Amino acid sequence: LVKVIPTTSTPELVSGPRRRGAPGRTKKEDITKEDLPSEYREDFRSQFTPLIRQYASTLGPWEAPPEANILALFATVFELETETMDPNLISVVLKLVKDCLSEWRNKFATTAMTTLERLFDSLHLNTQEKRAEYVRWLLGTDDKERPFYYKEYQ
Questions:
Q1: pLDDT band at 153 (very low <50, low <70, confident <90, very high)
Q2: Which of 6, 33, 108, 146 qualifies as a FRET site for 98, CA 20 to 30 Å off?
Q3: pTM for this structure?
Q4: Cα R_g (the chain), whole angstroms
């Protein structure tokens, strides 16, 4: 007779049901929102995702939110106790937050690149040299010759 005991000792795997209902283990890189319990999916999208993006916007541009803070926000939205959260749910939430923030940040980068390309096109800056010269002008040569100045707010 064999007894199967779920384990979390292999960090790259999450035990529990796989997507599409197949039993087994799911690799962390394969986790999607479908791996959340169904009762959490809608609120994850409509409440938790905007909240985690708002929180991440207070951090540095590539700074990852601490796991404890992610889980505290999740527990607040879903009225759970972080101490009693299922380890598999924790793994799924942390992976989905990482994906969510990567996608969100990627949209900023894509929009910035599209905007810059349009700006270059509108100014007829169609060579690397012209673009580099324009960027050098934007940056200015010293504090007294910059085309833009920014006020820092405390």
A1: low
A2: 6
A3: 0.68
A4: 23
